């Protein structure tokens, strides 16, 4: 079963390109690596999937449902982590985590406790007191605590120390082993090589599926060099 | 939706208290100063009531500021009208756009709640805050009357506070629509809108040609001098204001639901 099915997705920002005719399928149980230089269209694709952007043409189906018509049902089963983790500054970490669970209407206390322990999250601190990396950890807890069927992570490991990065990927593998699926947008080739089962690369708003996630540095960097030359 | 409403309320509680206690406190202070100024007021009232257009603009040709009613209408009326409109304009203008400006939108909009429900929660929060602001200020003004041992003109007072509430809801509705369009909070535009309406009302009461179109501005039906002097409230102005507020809120719902959200 395909958890994500994107067909001919096109999104423009006025006269500027977003993504052009992107088609993509991610199967259940996959850890899908989504590579590409800055401005290639990775975040545009993800933000279209989440319903933050209204795309021009094409269709997106997630968990067998239409991303526009069934947005609420889809989001109930999605754990999303944006590239920048921002929360309401005046709230405490514990309040943010509880707030995220309450809005979803699920009791996630046990799962949240386990995640905070494994990621070493200090729940008593105020959001404004947290470093960039610690905010990212809170974002991971919010994305994982309700045990979603699909994880969408947009550059999740930026700001995390190597130990936390390892814990993060261990958690992903555990959830995927239990039946979840993960789409991972990243610049870090080693993460894709090590953890992803399939991968695609975006460049200039277009998507190319890779035969294998195990690509070498030279081949990978060629996408970036070509992209810079064209820019 | 209830959780989002409660959270929004919690985040804005401090602002509500600061504004309502400041505006209400200034109004209360004005009322308490009445007795100490009462003697000098009689001469001033005579002078002020014969200043032609100026007296008309500030309602001193119809009410004597030497009476508590007239004093309240001209002094506290201006403080509350301006203070309230500035508070609700800032509140309305920031409530949607702040999510994108402070980058919290991706957190909030990744929950399984439709944009319309989120907009509804925020609109309800503005409505409740506006009601609370009016109630707190009204209570402080009533305390002022009680402290002076003056009888509160209940009918006029309730009508005035009710019309001020409607005016504040109209201004908040307009600024709510502004907030739905931009991903940055337009503080200047919001404050400008409130002050422009006030200036329009003052000018409209002086310039004869504009008087006919005074109903367009929300200050026209919420004018303290008119209400306390027993002038009938313009039904046309109330209907226009209500329709404008409703249109702005509907626009905010529709536009915000359709547009791209900035990261």
List keywords for this structure.
heterodimer; A: 231 residues; alpha/beta; Rossmann fold; six-stranded mixed β-sheet; four-stranded antiparallel β-sheet; globular; B: 263 residues; mainly alpha; 0% strand; elongated
Topology:
The complex is a heterodimer of chains A (231) and B (263).
Chain A: E1 2-13, E2 16-27, E3 31-35, H1 42-49, E4 57-62, E5 65-66, H2 71-76, E6 78-81, H3 93-104, H4 109-119, H5 132-144, E7 150-154, H6 162-177, E8 181-186, H7 189-195, E9 198-203, E10 206-209, H8 217-230
Parallel strand pairs in A: 3-8, 3-9, 6-7, 7-8
Antiparallel strand pairs in A: 1-2, 1-4, 4-5, 9-10
Chain B: H1 2-32, H2 34-48, H3 53-57, H4 68-94, H5 97-101, H6 105-108, H7 115-148, H8 154-181, H9 187-206, H10 208-211, H11 224-228, H12 235-258
Can you walk me through this structure?
- The complex is a heterodimer of chains A (231) and B (263).
- Chain A has 231 residues and is an alpha/beta fold.
- Chain A has a domain at 1-77 and 149-156 and 183-231: P-loop containing nucleotide triphosphate hydrolases (Rossmann fold).
- Chain A has helices spanning 42-49, 71-76, 93-104, 109-119, 132-144, 162-177, 189-195, 217-230; strands at 2-13, 16-27, 31-35, 57-62, 65-66, 78-81, 150-154, 181-186, 198-203, 206-209.
- In chain A, α4 runs antiparallel to α5.
- The longest helix of chain A is centred in the last third of the chain and has 16 residues, at 162-177.
- Chain B has 263 residues and is mainly α.
- Chain B has one domain (2-258).
- Chain B has twelve helices and no strands.
- Chain B has helices at residues 2-32, 34-48, 53-57, 68-94, 97-101, 105-108, 115-148, 154-181, 187-206, 208-211, 224-228, 235-258.
- In chain B, α1 (2-32) runs antiparallel to α4 (68-94), α4 (68-94) runs antiparallel to α7 (115-148) and α7 packs antiparallel against α12.
């Amino acid at each position: 079963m395909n958890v994500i099915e994107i067909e001919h997705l096109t999104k423009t920002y006025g006269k500027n390109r977003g993504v052009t005719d992107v088609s993509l399928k991610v199967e259940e149980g996959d850890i899908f690596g989504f590579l590409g230089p800055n401005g290639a269209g990775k975040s545009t694709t993800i933000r279209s999937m989440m319903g933050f952007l209204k795309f021009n043409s094409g269709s997106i189906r997630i968990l067998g449902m239409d991303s526009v018509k069934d947005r609420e049902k889809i989001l109930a089963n999605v754990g999303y982590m944006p590239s920048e983790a921002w929360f309401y500054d005046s709230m405490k970490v514990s309040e943010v985590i509880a707030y995220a669970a309450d809005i979803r209407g699920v009791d996630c206390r046990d799962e949240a406790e386990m995640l905070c322990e494994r990621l070493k999250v200090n729940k008593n601190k105020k959001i404004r007191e947290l470093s960039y990396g610690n905010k990212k950890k809170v974002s991971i807890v919010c994305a994982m605590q309700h045990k979603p069927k699909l994880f969408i992570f947009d550059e999740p490991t930026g700001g995390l120390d190597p130990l936390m990065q390892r814990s993060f990927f261990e958690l992903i593998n555990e959830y995927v082993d239990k039946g979840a699926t993960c789409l991972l947008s990243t610049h870090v080739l080693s993460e894709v090589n090590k953890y992803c089962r399939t991968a695609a690369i975006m460049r200039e708003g277009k998507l190319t599926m890779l035969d294998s996630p195990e690509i070498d540095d030279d081949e990978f960097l060629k996408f970036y060099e070509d992209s810079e030359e064209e820019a | 939706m209830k959780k989002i409403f409660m959270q929004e309320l919690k985040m804005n509680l401090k602002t509500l208290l600061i504004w309502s206690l400041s505006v209400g406190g200034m109004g209360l202070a004005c009322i308490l100063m009445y007795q100490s100024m009462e003697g000098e007021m009689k001469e001033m009232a005579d002078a002020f009531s014969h200043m032609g257009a100026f007296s008309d603009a500030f309602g001193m040709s119809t009410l004597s500021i030497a009476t508590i009613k007239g004093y309240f209408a001209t002094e506290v009326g201006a403080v509350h009208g301006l203070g309230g409109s500035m508070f609700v304009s800032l509140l309305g203008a920031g409530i949607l756009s702040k999510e994108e400006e402070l980058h919290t939108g991706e957190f909030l909009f990744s929950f399984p709640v439709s944009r319309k429900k989120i907009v509804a929660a925020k609109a309800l929060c503005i409505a409740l805050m506006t009601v609370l602001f009016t109630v707190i200020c009204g209570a402080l003004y009533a305390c002022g009357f009680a402290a002076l041992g003056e009888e509160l003109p209940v009918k006029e007072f309730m009508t005035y506070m009710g019309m001020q509430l409607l005016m504040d809801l109209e201004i908040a509705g307009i600024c709510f629509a502004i907030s739905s369009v931009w991903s940055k909070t337009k503080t200047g535009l919001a404050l400008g809108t409130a002050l422009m309406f006030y200036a329009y009302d003052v000018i409209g009461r002086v310039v004869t040609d504009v008087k006919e179109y005074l109903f367009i501005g929300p200050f026209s039906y919420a004018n303290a001098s008119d209400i306390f002097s027993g002038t009938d409230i313009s039904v046309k102005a109330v209907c226009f204001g209500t329709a404008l507020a409703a249109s702005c809120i509907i626009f905010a719902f529709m536009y915000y639901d359709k547009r791209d959200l900035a990261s």
